[in-house]
Predict the structure.
Amino acid sequence: MQPIARTLRGIATFLVAAVLAVSVAPAKADSPALEPINVGQPTRLEVFPPSVRLVGPRSRMQLVVTGHYADGSMQDLTRAAQFATSNAGVVAIENTIAVPKQDGTAEIVVNAGGQETKITVEVAGFATAPAVSFEWETLAALSKQGCNSGACHGSPSGKGGFRLSLRAFDSTIDKLTLIREDLGRRTNPLNPDESLLLNKPLMKVPHGGGQKLKKGDAAYAVLRQWIAEGCRSDAGDAPRCVKIEVYPPSGRLLRRPAHTQQLCVLAHFSNGMIRDVTDLACYSSSDSMVADVTAGGLVSSQDRGEAAIIVRYLEHVESCFLTFVKDIPGFAWANPPTANYIDEHVYAKLHQLQYQPSGLCTDEEFLRRTFLDVIGQLPTVKETNAFLANGAPDKRPKLIDDLLARDEHAKFWALKWGDLLRMTSTQIGGQGVHKYHRWLERAFETNLPYDRFARDLLAASGSTLDNPTANFYRTATDTQDCVESVSQIFLGARLQCAKCHNHPFERWTQDNYYGMAAFFNRVQRKKSPRADELLIYVAAGGEVTQPRTGKQMKPWLPGQGEIDPPAGTDRREPFVSWLTSKDNRLFAKVEANRLWSQLFGRGIVDPPDDFRDSNPPSNAPLLVALAKDFADHGFDRKHVLRTILNSHTYQADFRANEFNRDDVKYFSHYQPRLLAAEQLLDAICAMTALPEAFAGLPAGMKATQLPAPDLAKHDFLKIFGQPERQTVCACERTGDSNLGMAIQFFNGPLIYGKLRDANNRFRKALAAGKPNEEIISELYLAAVCRKPSAKELETSLAHIAAKGDQVVALEDIAWAILNTNEFLFQH
Amino acid sequence: MRRAGLVRTAQLHGLLPVLSLLFVAALPPAAVWAQPSLSHSTPGALAPGKTTELVLTGAKLDGPLKLWNSFPAQVELAPGDPAQKDRTSVAAKLTLPAGTACGIVGLAVANPSGASDVLYLMIDDLTSVADNGNNHSLAAPQDIGLPVAIDGACDGTVFDYYRFSAKAGQKISCEVVATRLGWDFDSVVRVLDAAGNEVLRADDDPATAADTRFVFAAPADGQYVLELRDNRYKPGGRYRLRLGDFPLVSTPLPLVATSGVVSQLGFSGPWTEGIAPISVLTAAAKSDVLPLSVKGAPGQSGWTTLLATDMPVVVESNSADKPDDPTPASIPGYFAGKLDPAKDRDEFQFTAMKGTSVSFKSLTRSAGSGAILMLRLHNAGGNQLAESPLTDSDEPVLNFTIPEDGAYRLSVEELAGRGGPDYAYAVEARTGPQFTLSLKNDANNRIRHSLSPGDGTFHLDVQCQRFAYDGPIMLGVESSRLGWQVFNSVVPAKANEVRLYVVAPLDFSPGDLAELRIVGRADESGRGAATTMGTAVQLRAARPQTPFPPAWLDGAILVSALAEQGSFYTVTADKTEVNFPRLVGETKVTLALKRTDPKFKDTQLVVMPLGLPAGITPEIKRNGNGPDETYDITLKGPKDLAEGIHTFRYFTFAEVATDGRSIQSGDIRLNVITPLAVTAMPAGPLVQGQKQKVKLTLSRRGDDKQPVDLKFKSLPTGVTAPEKTTLAAELNEIEVELSAAADAAPTKFDQLIAVATSKYAGTDLTVESSAVALEVKAP
């Protein structure tokens, strides 16, 4: 038994780990100290690009050398290779980069590990240097140095009177700022070195943002040259970047000693031109605990694992997903048996990363875990005894089926979706919230297929009371709210950023945002004479205008582009059809991941409503398989839950072994987590056998079954993170530890009242004349689904004897059990 | 809509306003009672063609109670002890005529301390039983036999259970009547089988909203339990649960029937199988809403209402709803139909002349339909010209002025694209000037009043919404109780609001309870078509759970008579006759207010002159506050107003809490007078070098005699007179001497005009005499 203080320290540790896991680390400016490459004996070398064409004196090409080995492995040998040019007058190699010297052709010979290969180089236009491009060089340079980031001059009001569009998403604004505004000080074409645009980031002039530029940076050369050329904007027909290409493509696996990877980023232009922009692209890592990336695009692994390197150039974003593995001394794959495809995918990943999965949890742990996850409740003592006494080999799958069929399952999972759908009486009304909640319960009760579930919500019209799903458009109060809610709930995408500008880290653009809005802007809301009632209907007309461009937007679907729904039809229909299509794997992935997350406390993509390139799944094949299974079974959520619950992965012991101790994201062992506020309250009630009464709600209604938090305000629930349901973000439900939690368990009124109540479990047992051993055993069974160990029983009995007051001593014991991690945590 | 009028058909029974005022006991002297209230009745329904012994439950049902009922019935209120205080129930026997239609009716009681609110109850041919109060668990349900109607109370978090038997395949109609009866009960119903498994669950209904309705088809022989509760677990609600095999009807089809014409009615709703269309002939006045029983084969009734009209009704004929095949229609008239299935659209085509003002008003939810319409008007080319604006109302109105002669189409759709048997509609299409009246929605305007006999008065802020009519609107009272007086009863041209004062009949006796409605007419003769002021907003505010109150209650103002008490003020005028000096154009009457009750302080008196002659307008000024408080009524008019004798009165009103009192004065004589006139008369010719007298005579009227300065406007050459002669206030004649110079030219001067200058009522006054002749001659 451990006191709450230690528990809370545990909670805090989890949270810190979670925060670190989801943060996106920016590229490091300088190269870290790298371990030498063990080149070994590659069977062949591959150089990217296989041929090089350099146009103009400022062109360059990052070369990437890959060694292929006999065992099928590969590694990046770029920084270990030797480069030689056949004509140094035409092309030179500077730090693995080919740079032009004059027009002509040449060969570059690359040697490593005894292998040699050649690529051809053509240099053209060396004598006729084109002007520096404002858009794809100057703005890219400013982005590279972070000048136009949200924290600096890219904030809506700029900084120090200097405002740029966020990450150069609006070149029109930047033109006005850089070319037309405040001429003479910011840029000085006659004497570029006196330009504030250079001297501030160089810190030659005081700069609030500190030093952001060095003379050796590629960006410095671009900016200086652009100023020297007279700060010109691009011609109207100037080529525009249409896409970027990152080499190597995603999926490369590097096994130590291979632990670095040089990236090469090519920009493709509207006129067919391809340029190396590796030095002007921006990089970040999805998991800096696994891999870092330098400003020059060199990735180096810190640990085994997977990381996505996000590459951004202007508004184009691509990612490179890399896996780093290393041999762990003493590790030998135990080849544990699998229960289903989930285990196969999880174990494949663990095997690859050399994590050994923990064994299966005990029956006691399984019982408690599954009850809490499926119905939100602890089993009764009777249910626990029956399960533990059952010797049938199929008792676990049978329990899973039984729990999934129980009413409490629907009620508990309605609580989870109630959070996402913002079910509160404040937002929906005192009548509507009950009806909406009942629809939700019913959906889980009848196992409404998820595509129908989504359709019922998103295509809802009519009275919010007669047709409760119409409340979706009551809580989503306007078009923007609709776009952001729908995308976050059903697409796992947080689009709020794209409302004002292109998403700074993702592919979502402002056009995408307003294209999505065109599906929902005709949804209107009308009051009714009936109190609490709102009528949701679709207006016959109405278009969305992109606020920045003034363009009238057509409905736009991810992956499909703009569509033209027939006039007079509900535009939501094509959206819902696209969303719920079996071909739209994202739809299935998001919900399958959410189900996973609710059972494991962590999503395969985590947070579960934040799908993005910079937040890749920890096991992509697993997520794909789950989504496929989900869609193939008619979006049957119970099927997915049943499959997961029956997996050994779910039933894994929470105790780590020496080969998975540091794993927090690959599901090698069960990660304990604090019970949700409502679960915890219900668990306390179950342990003490004293149900909580919620004013105005029927007797017997549990905290996990409350329709809305504002219908029964309860201090304990608030303190333990019950959400207000103000947003659709799963993050609103928080388990952040706080002093209030500790006080609640030390001496809070709820615990105190339950322990002192004459009708609580142990007082009634005492009144019934039960012996201490039996009472103590019942308390353990009720709280943690197991009997006390011999030591626990001995300690408890000794405490009773020492205390001299049997009732007070039992109060102490019950209090102590309530304060254990074992009780407080799902484990 | 007005409440129901006279109807004669086999199945219709109209509701005439009936006031059954039965004294329980003689009014004891100096009795003091509290205002009564009603909470419910037992049973919750009256049986057609029978005498029902009803127990009315409430509070303060003391004293000489009188009962008001909205329906025709013989009423016998059981006598009670008039001295008993705090009575909580009173018994009554009500006998309804055979053939009375099922529906919702109302009762209220009054004593000399005030009146209760209207209690809704049903006329129902189902047998009533009471909730036994011990049926709160599945294990101990209340056994019932079908058909039946249960009058029950909701216990919040505790549910009610009723057990009944059914055969496999037996269909049982179930209907909760709660919010329609004014109860705050949002029903949720489950039907469970004998093992407690849920067989059916029902909640809101598209047409009856919170009142659950459904048809239960028993899956097997056996016993079933119906679980009933409030959606919100809210305590205190009541319900009438109807169970049987009666039809579940939402509306007739069409919703409207033309008076004096045999109309075919079908029915629409969740269960109308096997109900044959019926023929109806109503003689009801236009806008009367008629209750309608719809009997199923076994004889139990479903119920709905029918609107009577004096206009023709056209029913959609294009069931395929082809846009190029609209239903021919004409305006004025009613367009009726049903939107079924979802996303249905009906079109009606009519012709109209350029400049015609057309008004389309939808009728749906107040008539029992679930539809909220979107009306769109198109020209012959299919171009949309207008659509009904979106407001908080569920029955939108589209007003439009026809731009050119031709054919037009009105398309009717459900706003949210819903459809089905509960989505019938009618659209009233009218031409010409239109206005509607409503009671202003604020705390100053109430629909229940208690007045002191004699001078008891209340006010209503009547608002009008106009379309193509800017003229005045004459307001009046319509009531079976005679003797009401109204003041300030004209909504002026182009205005949209007036405060109307209603004074109780002189013979209003303590405990009387009367219903009245305010009607407005557009022509000054008062004989034009009447529009009744609506009070739906106030009814909804009083019972938010009943968004569409019974039609018979919309517009009804219930007024009860309190025990006589002295007024809290008196007013006296400083004169009973007043002169209006036409050359001044202004006069004043001053009223002295005396406050006789300490509760009446500070509040300003409403003062309103009545019957002023044309051209004279009043201004009211308050002087002071308290014991010396007066009000000046300043009458202003043109200075050339014709002399004459008129009379006028004044009306005053004041209110303490809800006790409004008015005073009407007797006639005040108003004399339009000329306050000052002058004549000049020379005594004879004026001889050169000599003098002659001229007699100046003043005519003074009115009560403000002041000194008058006299002079001549002009004199012949060589003739002089004193520059100015002043006549004292008490004198009316003076002789002024003219002097002729020796060389004054002989002449016959005919413009000798005297000018008199004075003051009247503080105003400068100058008048001239008529011109007279003056001869200047040689000696």
User: Anything to note?
Assistant: The interface with chain A takes residues 156-159, 186, 188, 201, 203-206, 209-210, 231-234, 365, 370, 372, 390, 392-394, 415-418, 536, 540, 544-545, 547-548 of chain B (CB under 8 Å).
